[in-house]
Amino acid sequence: MVADFWVTGLQPHAVSAITGTGTGEMLDALAELLPPPTGLEQDDAEEQPLAVAIVGRPNVGKSSLLNAIAGEERSIVCDLSGTTRDAVDTRVTLPGGQRLTLIDTAGIRKRSRVADSPDGAEQLSVDRAMRAVRRADVAVLVIDAVEGVTQQDFRLSELFASEGKSVVVVVNKWDRVDPRIWSVEKMAENVKTQLRHVSWASVVCTSAISGRHVEDVLEAVLDAGKQHRRRVPTATLNMVLREATQWKAPPTQRGSLRKGRIYYATQAG
Hints:
The chain is 36% helix and 14% strand. The chain has 269 residues and is an alpha/beta fold. It has a domain at 48-228: Rossmann fold (3-Layer(aba) Sandwich). Strands 2-3-1-4-5-6 form a six-stranded mixed beta sheet, sandwiched between helices. Helix 1 (23-33) packs antiparallel against helix 9. The two termini are 36 Å apart. Residues 40-45, 73-86 and 109-123 have low confidence and may be disordered.
């Protein structure tokens, strides 16, 4: 029947409204024919800067890392924990032309410790840090190389995964680690094992104070941002969906013999 429509000079798309077969290809064809958005300002039409939230426990070197990336002192650096109280945005343009919005956040302690703290400003700072994570494209989790991965680091990685963020793990204060015990490869393997929710994330060992390997952090952030903004065609998603449902069919509905049915998938947001 589809062949009969070729005589009209149009390109037909065979679909099944019941099973959803072919709807992904049809949506891709429709998207190609849509006109570009009108009424946008030039700045809006350009790609927005990559939003990067620098997150971690207090006094792990978040502000030092931001200053090293920015090339100047934008955040206060102090040995006392809790120096950064607010989520501070810093715009940076890299030599290659890439634009970043670096978000330096307050150190996030365990919820019980925050609740027991007499300082009400700390809870507000933590809330702002969590909001900063949600508006970021990439979350940079900074951990202390000497202390290693803590339970709070694990919980933060769990949050990043649930929010669907690209993640880069930065092991800071690498200059304080005994090289006879730890190598970069061994540390990366250890971090990936303990942070299983983001075991796919890049791990970079650095010293923010000296600037050692900061360029590796930038490279990992840019790559993570590229992956985060990647668009997957609807046809590709539906091909994967079909293979997945053929391998394992959706479960039956409770109290019914009818199985659930997924018609099609498309990337949104």
